Amino acid sequence: MGVRDEGSIKLSAGAKAAIKSCGGTMIDSLGFRDAYALIGRKNGTALAEAWQKRSSGFAVAVTRRPAIKADTSAVPICDAKVAAPPMRGTFPQNQLQLDAGCRYALWETPGALGCLQGRWVVHIGTSNTILWWIQFANFLHPGAIRPIRDDVSLGQFRLADLVIDQGVITYQKAEMPEDCLPKVKHDSEVCKAAKAALLSAPSYSPTAVRLTLIIEHYWPNTGSDLDLLQAASSGAWGGKMAVNAHVVTHYVYCMVMKDRSCTMAAYKQDVTQEENLGIFRAEMEPVADKLQAHCGPEAAFKDCTVATATVLAWQDPRYNDFQDVIRDVMASRGSRDLRLLDLALMGQSMPGEAIRGHGSPVNFLWAVQILLNGMCPLDLAASGNFAKFEGPTCHATDVANDPNFDNCPEYRDQACGPDKTHHWCMDWECAADVPCKMVATGGSIVQANLTGACFRNLSVSFEEQTASSDACFRVWCLEAAEVPITLVALLPALFLLAWMWQWPQRLRRCCKAKQEPKEEPVEEVLEQPVEEEASDSKFASVTEATLNKSATAPVDVSPRSKPDMDRAVTVHLGGGVMDEVVPDEQAADAGEIHAVMAEPSAAKPAPKTPPKAGDKFPLGLARFIAAVHVVLFHLYAEGVTPDVYLFGWGFTWVPWFFMLSGFVLGNGHECRPNKDGILQYTERRLVTVYPLYASTLLPALVIAKGLGVQKKAVVLAAQTWLLQAWNPEWPEHALGAHCWFLSAMLMHFLLFKPLTWCFDRLALRGAVLTVCAVFALPWLAVIIPEALQARLWYADHHWGETDSTIDLVVIFVKFNPICYVHIFALGMLMAKIRKLVDGNVGGLWCRVVLESLLPASIVGLLLVFMVKDLRPWGYQITTQVGLLLPLQATVILGLAGLPSLPLPYLAQKASHLDFLEPYAFSYYLFQGLAYSLWPRGGYLGGSTVLFLLFLFGISVISVHMIQKPAQSLWTKYPNSRRGVPVLLTLLLVGLNYIPAAGPGAFTGLEAEVRHDAEMVDVRLPLTDPADDLGGVLINPSLFIHEGEVKIAVRRHHLESWEHIGEHNGSVVHVIEQIWHSRILLGSVSFDAGRWAEWPKTGVAPFAASEVSAWTGLRSPSGQAWRQLCVRETFLPENNTLLRKVTTGPEDPKLLYSDGLAVLFNSIPPRGRDGCAPAETVSQMYLAHLGAGASPAVETTGQRLGCGFRDQDEKNWIPFAYQGKLHLIYTPGPHKVVAVDSEGCRDLYETAFEPLKRLQERHPELKARGSGQAVLVNGTHTPNLPYPHYLALLHLAKPSTGEYKHFAYRFSAEPPFAMLQISSELPLQTAAPARGGAVFAFGSGLLLQDETVVISYGAGDLEPRALVMNLQRLDDMFGC
């Protein structure tokens, strides 16, 4: 009670007397407007009392209420001799507290041995039955059975027998009889005879206890075992046998999981669940009938039981269907002699005692206790009523947190060491290897104070909602527009091609009308120089003059080499019609313009002569195919194309383009050395590429802004000047990242002149040796990692990551122009060798070799691209720098031929498609823009062809509408063009300051959603200026500390790509899903007034706040929190490796624990020896931020060993109690653990009945925690007007990815029992970018004065907060 305002006068004498009766001793001292507080007992003493003079502050009385403990000895003993003994309950303090209101008597070894003298107990089942049997044996005789030592490891035996007589093991055997493999439905007669012999071996003793274990997977064999047991018990053992059948697990493995360990193909058929359950029932019922007939006081068997599976519950509702069949079958057959042991219900009571699908020693020791309660008289039970378990591996967490098996060293050395004696080592066998002793002591359970608890039924409805039709994460989304948009691009392109095709014919007709019948040597005209930057009119005049020189016979004219001639006109005359006049890109590379003309002669046609190869290379088709292959690779890497192995090799053509450029430019130099200076030459070369590239930057920036991606100004400036590939931090963050190769081309142009000075001095031998050296150079990328035993050194890098040295080295090797100089030089050397060889070779053999080069190289490349076993070692990085150079070089030589010899046959045919050449560059260049504009995201499938056609249309249009006019302008105004990069830089950098689109553009959610006057949902104003990969901020956590609002939030970006890789030495298709994740921190000043008004105004009490990456977070080894373990799942049926890569920590929760700290979950950082496959799961970590909470200050994240190392751990709820950090490990059951310097200690476990009932009705639902828990004093919460904790939980449906969020309250004192659950919180949901059901994820809870802020992420897309006052939240707890 308390006194505020004025009580010295207003309190009557009777009131003061009542206060004194509760222990008050200071009430008579109360003066005018003094403050007073009392916590006391009626008719007792004061527990705490305080009195403060006026204006001296509050009177605060604080006391700790002692925990209420329940003496379990007063609880009645359950009757276990019933058809279905009670099993449902909770597991506080390791005690099975049954909902039936009774308890089981506890048994210790002496009493159990006295009860079981002269009895034979038989267990039939598989792995969990083995563990049960081992615990039973070790309970009766500590250390009697150890899995490896005694050959009872699963798969090593079929029948095990143990006899204990007066505390001594007198018989022990574990056998795998002949022809007795366990995974069959019906044993052979040989096996049955062998089993019968083993069962009849031990002789009867009235003081002995016999334990037998038979491994059976299926019910039919269990039935035949009963026949064998009945025969074996016909002698002295008659009437003394107890049988426990525990058969269900392998039906689930076969029928539901379709597990490869299942040998029964008939059970793995694709049939309905009802059909599977029908088969299971049909096979179980005859066995149950046999048990019913032979179990009873006068029958062969006594005390028979059928058990459900121990830990199959809470995983998949289909698993529980099999448990229901067992219950249904036993419902009509159960009796005092044939009982159902519903171990599944018991397992639900202690979900933390499961070890990867197997029960812990504690779990099975409780099963032994229940079994003994049904078999033995109670007068032999122990006097204690509180079970205490002693041993290093009793609990599941004991082995879960012991990855090196230090708690079972003998088992580890026998089963897991380098000289393995058995086929495996398992943590659940490790737990069974070390005896766990159960001792019955006196004790009591901390009783929950349920004052104010509300046990109304909890109901929740999951109606799967997917993204609405207008939800779009692209420029636009309309699948129906795929065909129309393809036609819009393709039809104009085809018109342009047709027009270009007809133009030479019109020109020929025009020229033919002006022809004069005189013969002059064509060579004279061809000697006329044509300037590099000649206008179209000049080109037309030269061409017309040339064509006016008619010829009467076919003539092949090769260009003349003159030092001062930059461009020549080559005319091929032959028997046909004029084909084309093309001032194309390749011709420009060679310094030529080619016109091909055919003039029919009136005279007798001369025989056709194969044209000489000359210096006109038919490379157009090859260039275009290479460009298409590169585009297909990028689509394949995005996972949007069909799974075609060939597509995964498209990236190998990028180096080939460098080689081709060197070859063409080198050939031009060999024919006509250019006298330009280095800069002048480079500038003229860029005329052919820069205008088209520059035209892509502005639309790319606009699209990036529209998609919410903010680029860095320095990267934009660098790529405007073609410098983006030089700094490793730039190329993967640039607009159109695939255009990095232009940086290399710029360098190649600059180096071309110096390289020609070097190569001009080389003779044939020197050129050949240099080529061989260049071919060998990429192998350094193979030899060095192999020598360092780091074959996959590059695999640690993921796109966009630049934090580690490995990241920077990989980016340097992949993109830096220096790494490709040798390939460009190789192309120049090939051109030189071609000229040096020409004229010195000839004859048939030379022709054969030249004809064979192209087909041989094509076959070789196709074999590499299509036959998985022929891939180069470490292809992912080595081929990037040119491991396929010899084959790709042969493609160029096979197309070029030798100048003085006829063009190879395939090259002649390819020349008919040379018109594709100008479009190869634009095809490659515009792929990113085209994909951004494509109206369909995700898997393209058959639409891949439509997209390629759409891209071709864009490419053709861009060449004719952008590239050629721009080239003409750049040629006409050489001085003005030098200012274009400057203006473009200023434009891009200036536009970059325009804010990118916010998340609301994609979620469709309003920035503010008003629910009522006291509740509003808002988007949190958080910004991440450092992100330029399209990441989003999600799952925020807020905390008020030292006058500031501290902010922690997760940056999230999901990337998927597919590629070719290896797994266990074999080539596989790899689907890699990369979860780019990072925790960001920030802070803003706290404004109490604005904070209090937030629920009413809807305006966040802080302005837009920038958050920055938590770079100071370190792993326990002192490394940055990167390079985490990778989760891999191999699917042998389709040779696919699924790799889930997480790049950083996730889901922070701010809290106060000896200073400001962050609780977060993360995949473990990779250790020195890598990662154990079973431990590549999320774990919980705690890191203290230190003074100032700067994200750059180094701090170590320490794993909290409260859970399992081999299971995903997340969503723990932190709260403080008496200044110490506590965690709610699970909301259902409500399990609380304490964290201290020694680690985690399990404290309390309680169950909230409405939540428990809901989970039993819907086992597919998972109850998980959210955010933090905060203490509420109860003054503004009428529905619970006592101090309590407020927390969040969500019910998850993993099959659909849906969540339902609730607030809940739990008691402020141990055992921290759950008291109330609110109605569903109205969080705003959105569909994630990856697709799927709409959802929200609650991530934080903050209570400041009377304002409640529930922070959350909407659909993995934006950070939001549901804000209300405390009384409005209290309304949601109405009971």
TrEMBL record:
Signal peptide: none annotated. Keywords: Membrane, Transmembrane, Transmembrane helix. It comes from the Eukaryota. This is Acyltransferase 3 domain-containing protein. Residues 518-539 are annotated as: Disordered. GO terms for molecular function: acyltransferase activity, transferring groups other than amino-acyl groups. Residues 521-534 have a biased composition (Acidic residues). Residues 621-957 form the Acyltransferase domain. InterPro entries: Acyl_transf_3_dom. The chain crosses the membrane at residues 483-501, 617-637, 643-665, 686-704, 733-752, 764-788, 808-831, 843-867, 940-962, 982-1002. Pfam families: Acyl_transf_3 (PF01757).
